[in-house]
Amino acid sequence: MSESSGPEGAETPVADVAHNARVWNYWLGGKDYYAIDQQVGDHVTSMYPSIREVARADRAFLGHVVRYLAGEAGIRQFLDIGTGLPTVENTHQVAQRVAPSSRIVYVDNDPTVLIHARALLTSSEEGATDYIDADAHHPSAIVDAAADTLDFVDPVAVIMLGILNFIADTDEASRIVDTLMAAVPSGSYLVLTHPTLELGGEANEEAMRFWNENATPPITARDRAEVAGFFRGLELLPPGIISCSRWRPGHAADDEKTVAQFGAVARKP
Ligand SMILES: C[S@@+](CC[C@H](N)C(=O)[O-])C[C@H]1O[C@@H](n2cnc3c(N)ncnc32)[C@H](O)[C@@H]1O
């Protein structure tokens, strides 16, 4: 990461602990990470070689879903929580290419994401983007802040890719999802990805233990039933809860390799 990457006058934060947002950026082939992120990221890769494929599949899933939601589903508002560092094809770029009037609010609690957030604020003239520095543990505060940009009378796509795995307690993760989905009207959507030890992800157990001893925030995997629990009361869209690499609107792509990361989309009735 270049020393000049911080905002004017601010010091670049010292990194002695690997952070998920930066290691994820490293796995995605970005440039916004420190030596410690690379070391931990490489060690995880040696234990769980498919992690880079997981990261890439997760971003590709974001593209497929946002194109579908902004296109066929007619969604114009997106609340992307656990945004990560800006990369190519961020939510607003995908959505506003389909529908320039799309409004997007990004949320993350990582200080490095905050520093780089201005790259997420390049909205089309017709639409809007905003960034909120907030913790997912406080969903009502997120909704309040997002209301400056989003109108909660109209449908909103709540996007939480690779973030509920950082909420260790499943009841707490469900409470967060339920609070967010209670704040949006009928016709809104919930979009999730989540790592699992199923779908061939067994090797991730050891890698996650290493992560939790050497990096932050601590991570947890969930099985299909636990992920299904987050969609309680919502209508799952076909193809359901599936390897995120294979999710396409209405069907599963047969030619894509399975990765140990569930992806699913559901509509609020
Ligand atoms: C695995 S990355 C996923 C990034 C992006 N959503 C994607 O799928 O490419 C998870 C992101 O969630 C953020 N995150 C983790 N815990 C969080 C919390 N409690 N509140 C807000 N953001 C959180 C991390 O900082 C990181 O940027």
TrEMBL record:
Position of the signal peptide: none
Q: What is this protein called?
A: SAM-dependent methyltransferase
Query: What GO molecular function annotation could you give as one example from this UniProt entry?
Result: methyltransferase activity
Q: Which terms are listed as keywords in the entry?
A: Methyltransferase, Transferase
Keyword Lipid metabolism listed? The answer is no
One GO term (biological process): methylation
Q: Which Pfam families match?
A: Methyltransf_19
Q: Where are the transmembrane segments?
A: none
Native organism is: Streptomyces reniochalinae
State the InterPro entries in the record: SAM-dependent_MTases_sf, SAM_dep_MeTrfase_SAV2177_type
